[in-house]
Specification:
Blueprint: E1 7-15, H1 21-30, E2 35-39, H2 46-51, H3 53-71, H4 86-110, E3 114-117, E4 119-124, E5 127-131, E6 137-145, E7 149-151, E8 163-164, H5 165-169, E9 177-181, H6 185-197, E10 200-204, H7 216-226, E11 232-234, E12 237-244, E13 250-256, E14 259-265, E15 267-270, E16 274-276, E17 309-311, H8 322-336, E18 350-352, E19 357-362, H9 365-371, E20 376-381, H10 386-390, E21 397-402, E22 409-416, H11 419-431, H12 436-441, H13 451-461
Parallel strand pairs: 1-2, 1-6, 2-3, 6-17, 8-15, 9-10, 9-15, 10-11
Antiparallel strand pairs: 4-5, 5-6, 7-16, 12-13, 13-14, 18-19, 19-22, 20-21, 21-22
Helix pairs in contact: 1-8, 3-4, 3-6
Length: 473
């Protein structure tokens, strides 16, 4: 690697050290490439690790432990109450994040990846300028853009003193009443965290349904459970104004069915999605094309319209998920190193860490209906599953979507405990081109939640054992 006093030369420059960027840098180093990783933040890991997936799931687990302790009274384990030490919870969350971030830094160092602090901007298709950095620029043969995404904000004119999801994850305090603007996975997960910590939580969602990307039968199970914990869920509603109250809190004007109402909340949490970080990157100095939603256009190799520059993760088309970014990272790194590779995955699993969890992969019923695709669906309720009854968690189901002619598995949906762990089997089945008979012939251990996947496959094939078969005409 050629070093200079102001600029640095490298074979591959990677912008961003999230689950896309750092994985790409490590894979490139393993394949023998010289790599410079440019990161604007003080710590590695990106949004997912620093202010997203990891801290939120740490808090979700803490609340689940509390709820489980309180629920244990139903089968004879008394619990007189729980207390919450916010300082200790903050410290614990920070320790988890810090430990993982330091682990990423250690991996990069041991692989010989050079890390540079600062903000990268393209000055050409082979050079980066580094703003507020340790060096002035990087010259490269190839580059991978892995800059992630940022939170959407409320329109100008609405108070900026409300919480974002990043603010909420720092646990500033537990408000007495909390309005969550946005009924997607971020809003629901954090709303339930604060409900578990003691807040009275209401949710406002513009769409007719919560989690509009998931099938309604899965969401309905979750909503039935969550509605007992939330004060109010306002669908097809929109926040049109937020103003601070002199005595504290916020007055919120909400529009619904052409009518408006005003309510007062101690705090407001805005969770209305994310946008790709493609602005102010200097893309105009390259041949990179950007779509209408701000994402960078790429092919199956993750290559942009500038052949030596690749884009992965949230800045590329597709769901904004960490595991999708990591998969793309490996593909881009291997293509740069001359190996064959393509992002041709048949399924990208999605998980919502509500209680109960929701997970789906491959084709959904909603997508099949929109495309006019003929499908067969097999469902198995957790109420009929032995392991679910031992856990006292029978609220949920597993469903399998298949081709009616061949039995080829096209999609899997799960709502219930540990759905996030179970969905991988469905994803593997889709990737391998498995059929219903393949799943049925696979012995699942008993008693486990995974048996519900087997049972759903049997239901789709019409050979269900533990539920009544459908009535024949």
């Amino acid at each position: 690697m050629v070093m200079g006093s102001l600029r640095q030369e490298t074979q591959v420059a990677v912008i961003g050290s999230g689950p896309g960027g750092y994985v790409a840098a490590l894979r490139l180093a393993d394949l023998g490439k010289e790599v410079v990783l440019v990161e604007e933040r003080d710590r590695h890991g990106g949004t997912c690790l620093l202010e997203g997936c990891i801290p939120s799931k740490t808090l979700i687990h803490a609340v689940e432990v509390k709820e489980a302790a309180l629920a244990a009274v139903s089968f004879g384990l008394g619990c007189t109450g729980t207390s919450i030490d916010l300082d200790r919870l903050r410290t614990h969350t920070d320790e988890v994040v810090q430990g993982l971030s330091q682990g990423v830094a250690g991996l990069l160092k041991r692989r010989g990846v050079t890390t540079v602090r600062g903000r990268a901007r393209f000055s050409s298709n082979h050079s980066l300028e580094i703003e507020s950095g340790e060096i002035s620029g990087v010259d490269f043969e190839h580059c991978i853009i892995a800059t992630g995404s940022s939170l959407n904000r409320l329109p100008p004119g609405i108070t900026n003193k409300v919480w974002s999801s990043a603010d909420a994850l720092t646990l500033p305090r537990v408000p007495s009443t909390l309005l969550v603007v946005g009924g997607g996975y971020i809003g629901l997960e954090l709303g339930l965290v604060y409900q578990g910590l003691g807040s009275h939580v209401s949710v406002v969602e513009f769409s007719p349904h919560l989690l509009p990307g998931a099938d309604h039968d899965l969401v309905e199970v979750m909503v039935k459970s969550v509605s007992r914990r939330l004060d109010e869920v306002l669908l097809e509603s929109k926040v049109v104004a937020i103003s601070e109250e002199a005595a504290g809190g916020f007055k919120v004007r909400i529009a619904h069915d052409l009518e408006e109402s005003e309510r007062t909340f101690d705090m407001v949490l805005v969770a209305i999605g994310r946008r790709p970080n493609t602005e102010n990157l200097g893309l105009e100095h390259t041949g990179i094309e950007v779509g209408v939603r701000g994402t960078i256009r790429t092919n199956q190799e993750c290559r942009t319209t500038e052949p030596n520059i690749f884009a992965i993760g949230d800045v590329a088309d597709g769901p904004m998920l960490a595991h999708k970014a990591s998969r793309e990272a490996k593909i881009a790194a291997e293509v740069i190193c001359g190996q064959p590779g393509a992002f041709d995955n048949r399924a990208i699993p999605a998980v919502v860490y509500t209680d109960p969890e929701i997970a789906w992969t491959g084709l959904t019923e909603r997508e099949a209906a929109a495309a006019g695709t003929e499908i067969r669906v097999g469902r198995f309720p957790l109420a009929a599953l032995g392991r679910a009854r031992t856990l006292d968690r029978t609220d949920g189901l597993v469903k399998i979507i298949c081709d009616p002619a061949t039995g080829l598995i096209l999609g899997v949906g799960i709502v219930g405990p540990h759905a996030s762990e179970l969905i991988a089997e469905g994803t593997l089945a889709i990737e391998m081109g498995a059929t219903l008979e393949d799943l049925i012939a696979t012995i699942h251990p008993h008693p486990t939640l995974s048996e519900a996947v087997l049972e759903a496959a049997e239901a789709a094939l019409g050979s269900a054992i533990h539920i009544h078969p459908p009535r024949r005409p």
